[in-house]
Amino acid sequence: MSTSPLRVGLLGLGTVNTAVAQRVVQHAQLLEAHAGRPVVLRGVAVRDTARQRDIDLGEVIVTADAAALVTAETIDVIVEAIGGTDPVLPLLRAALAAGKHVVTANKEVIARHGDELGALAVKHGVALRYGAAAGAAVPMLELFDNALGGDDITSIDAICNSTTNFVLEQMGRGGLTLDQAIAEAQRLGFAEADPSTDIDGWDAAFKLALLAGHAFGGHVDVDLVRRRGIRDVTTADLQRADEMGCAIKLLAHAAWDGSRVSLSVQPTLLVRGGHPLASVDGSRNGVLVQSDLAGTTLLTGTGAGGDPTASAVVNDIVITARDGAAGWRPVPQGSLEVMSADDAECAAYVRIRSSGGAVGDEVAQMLEDRGVPVVSIMMSATDEVVVLTGTAPVSVIANAMDTIDSMPVVDRVLACLEVGGKV
Amino acid sequence: MSTSPLRVGLLGLGTVNTAVAQRVVQHAQLLEAHAGRPVVLRGVAVRDTARQRDIDLGEVIVTADAAALVTAETIDVIVEAIGGTDPVLPLLRAALAAGKHVVTANKEVIARHGDELGALAVKHGVALRYGAAAGAAVPMLELFDNALGGDDITSIDAICNSTTNFVLEQMGRGGLTLDQAIAEAQRLGFAEADPSTDIDGWDAAFKLALLAGHAFGGHVDVDLVRRRGIRDVTTADLQRADEMGCAIKLLAHAAWDGSRVSLSVQPTLLVRGGHPLASVDGSRNGVLVQSDLAGTTLLTGTGAGGDPTASAVVNDIVITARDGAAGWRPVPQGSLEVMSADDAECAAYVRIRSSGGAVGDEVAQMLEDRGVPVVSIMMSATDEVVVLTGTAPVSVIANAMDTIDSMPVVDRVLACLEVGGKV
Questions:
Q1: How far apart are CA B120 and CA B128, in angstroms?
Q2: With an 8 Å Cβ cutoff, are A152 and B301 in contact?
Q3: Which of A204, A293, B44, B423 could form a disulfide with B10 if both were Cys (CB 3.0 to 4.6 A apart)?
Q4: φ and ψ at residue B120, rounded to 5 degrees
Q5: Cβ–Cβ contacts within 10 Å for residue A331, how many?
Q6: Which of helix, strand or coil describes residue A332?
Q7: Which of residues 230-269 of B touch A (CB under 8 A)?
Q8: What are the φ and ψ backbone dihedral angles of B229, each rounded to 5 degrees?
């Protein structure tokens, strides 16, 4: 084991890497105790070197030349927190090819190019660690990399996007519209100027691809995730859910049938007090894993923010200082076969506006005729009916929605959401 | 990386190692996929080789000569699930000295001799892994070994004994006495014939010593854990707690002030819906960690039983096949300084039988005079008063109990329990 310092170079100096730099500089003794050798900051690449920063970097070299930093002889590990794939991908390729370990918080570049970068790391005898990419301070990937190694994992459910958590809470309890809630999230720094990566479910899909890849052992094509964002969730649905003792969350779900993986990201009804992820609110993230020996394992923690993300990044730096490339393994090459949506099953929450007549009875009869079990029917004081179904094929439920929408007693299907867990 | 098979030898063939053997024999393909090389069972040492077993071991050697198995040339890793220190300790010493990796589910031998065995493993270039020893299928130690490496950890709370969980639930919701509940647990196989290791808090104290050792980086003397079992918890207290929306759990708690660790195992009042561990019931175990970057991290899962314990044991075997001794580090040598009980602080639940008079007011006044904040006073229909205090030094609260017990308006202090979390 080396006892010389591990020399760190940072790509980007936004919220996350500023917190990383602070930890490395100000808690050197703690990191050395955990790593068994010193960890030192040697260089930082930023776009604008003239910009005033909130951190005193002392003698650390600050450069605009990221390409030079990633191949510098004075650096052992490159820590990337820029995000996205451009210009990140060529920089990470160059770093790995130059024999530098890489630590990144970037879910997109790993979800899209993790197989290529992993193979490159193996080729050059270095490690590519990205614990922060799925769940920030919540060590979700650890569950699959260093625990449950003897288990056959059958499903994963995750709340892994804090922005939609916040927006849905503001709409439900706060009574805001989607646009108002997004504006509030932006004002508080919880949402980007362009919030579509979060709101449309891309961020959660990237994370789900990482989780499923590590759990089931193969690359996951993120474009094959059945993905539905929260744009069509209404304040009315959130309030109806609340009355029913439920929450609506953007849930990432993966299931494994032994040969194929089913993948979805979508707004999902979760029973409070029943589904362990229903109470994972605000900036908290959580993952629920089902496996054959361990049963149900639940991990929750802080899934967003500078310090919690830095927690996972610095952990990866410490592990790299301690173990080098040992103990790290890339996800096996080769893509997992993804189940088509037609083969998936779900339970559903359906909200219908009646145009008069015995709408509940007629809808229930139609669903039962198609083999969709009806769990409950709730009439409201208004002209609305909410139906909860048991589990049925997704395609059967989708077809049934079209039929309901065209029934004479029905004015319109106002909403149809999947229900998480067993109904 | 080796691609030859990892050859496993088992010490003991009780519930846990039978489940381990089944997994290794019947799920060879799964384990090879996770480990990157085959894992094969080569030998089993049992006390009675003539005994009929529920498992078909085929060609595997079954011997009564454990001492020969642990040094056999045909074995790479010894998996111990006998329990206790005798004859385990000399067997594990011999296995490590012979250059065998060791995997064990034995909390006692690690809590008492982990420093010696860890040093021996380092000396011989092998790994000593014991993920099953704290929390069975709940990878609690992983949180400290491979996550939170950049964090300053300040406290750990754990529910890590399923037997007391079960007994307290049977007493509370079932209305049984302690003896009846223990008998029921024994009938269902949840408690040993001699239940004292669980009931008196030793099992939880062993696990707390492991958790604190990994979290804070040093050996913990288990005899210095402030330990109180559940023998003096009454059905009346459990029912009172339930009425207050609380649970009473055997809680293991460790806190770190930067130089000293405070350690306790005791029955503790937890607010349901408030404290994340209050709902960790039955065979579930959980750990709640506070740290400076990550904030609050919660991990729960199945903490008892053959399959869940085998989950962690087989994971350690897979990691050993994959990484050998790499990625494994012993807890640093040297003992952590343990804070004396006099320096610890707690909040308290106090149940008092009144002998008439304004007992609530007088007790509250006395507590306030000693600097113990009073959070609430509840009179019951009977002659009882329950007082919840805020945080104060343990020694001050203990002295106050003596004073209350001798007050003229008080017949007797019926119970005093610590309250978990912030009050």
A1: 9
A2: no
A3: B44
A4: -65, -40
A5: 23
A6: coil
A7: none
A8: -80, -160
A329 touches chain B (CB under 8 A): yes
Strands A39-45 and A61-63: parallel
Which residue type is seen at A130? Answer: Y
Separation of alpha carbons B203 and B162, rounded Å: 10
Q: pLDDT-based confidence at B422, cuts 50/70/90? A: low
Four-CA torsion B325, B326, B328, B333, nearest 10 degrees = 80
Q: Which of A330, A412, A400, A413 is nearest to A367 (CA)?
A: A400
**Closest chain B residue to A26, measured at CA:** B150
Report which residue type is found at B364: A
**Which residues share a beta bridge with A261?**
A256, A338
Helix, strand or coil for residue B180?
helix
A207 is catalytic: yes
Token pair for residue A54?
């909130």
The closest alpha carbon to B83, from B110, B45, B58, belongs to B110
Helix (H, G, I), strand (E, B) or coil at B100: coil
Q: What residue type is assigned to position B132 of the chain? A: A
Residue in the structure block whose two tokens are 């007391």: B164
> Which residues have a Cβ under 8 Å from the Cβ of B342 and sit 6 or more positions away?
B393, B394, B395
What phi and psi values does residue B75 have, to the nearest 5 degrees?
Answer: -120, 135
8 Å CB contact between A237 and A351: yes
CA distance B274 to chain A (A): 11
Q: Retrieve residue A119's tokens.
A: 């193979």
Q: B410 vs chain A: nearest CA distance in angstroms?
A: 40
Cα separation, B413 vs B355, whole angstroms: 11
DSSP string, A198-222: HHTTHHHHHHHHHHHHHHHTSB--G
CB A286 within 8 A of CB A4: no
DSSP A286-320: EEEEEETTTEEEEEEEE-SSHHHHHHHHHHHHHHH
- B149:A315 CB<8 A: yes
Q: Which of B81, B133, B74, B78 is nearest to B102 (CA)?
A: B78
CB contact under 8 A, B315 and A150: yes
Distances (CA, A) of B328 to A2, A148, B195, B248, B319: 15, 17, 34, 37, 10
- Complex ipTM value: 0.95
The distance in angstroms from the start CA to the end CA of chain A is 53
For residue A22, what are its two tokens? 């602070």
- Residue owning tokens 């229930």: A364
**Cβ count within 10 A of residue B207:** 28
CA A366 from centre of chain: 37
A293 touches chain B (CB under 8 A): yes
Is the pTM higher than 0.90? The answer reads yes
CA distances from A262 to A391, A397, B146 (A): 15, 17, 29
Q: Chain B: give the shortest CA distance to residue A150, in Å.
A: 5
Residues A212-260 have pLDDT tens digits of 999 999 999 999 999 999 999 999 999 999 999 999 999 999 999 999 9
Pairing label, strands A226-227, A153-159: unpaired
Percent of chain B scoring above 70 in pLDDT: 99
Give how far the C-alpha of residue A176 lies from the chain's centroid of Cα atoms, to the nearest Å: 24
Q: What span, in angstroms and rounded, lies between the C-alpha atoms of B404 and B366?
A: 8
Query: Tokens 């008063």 appear where?
Result: B385
Q: Taking a C-beta distance cutoff of 8 angstroms, is the pair B165, B281 a contact? A: yes
pLDDT, tens digit, for every residue of A177-190?
999 999 999 998 88
Between the two ends of chain B, the Cα-to-Cα distance in Å is 53
Helices (H) and strands (E) in chain A, counts: 14, 18
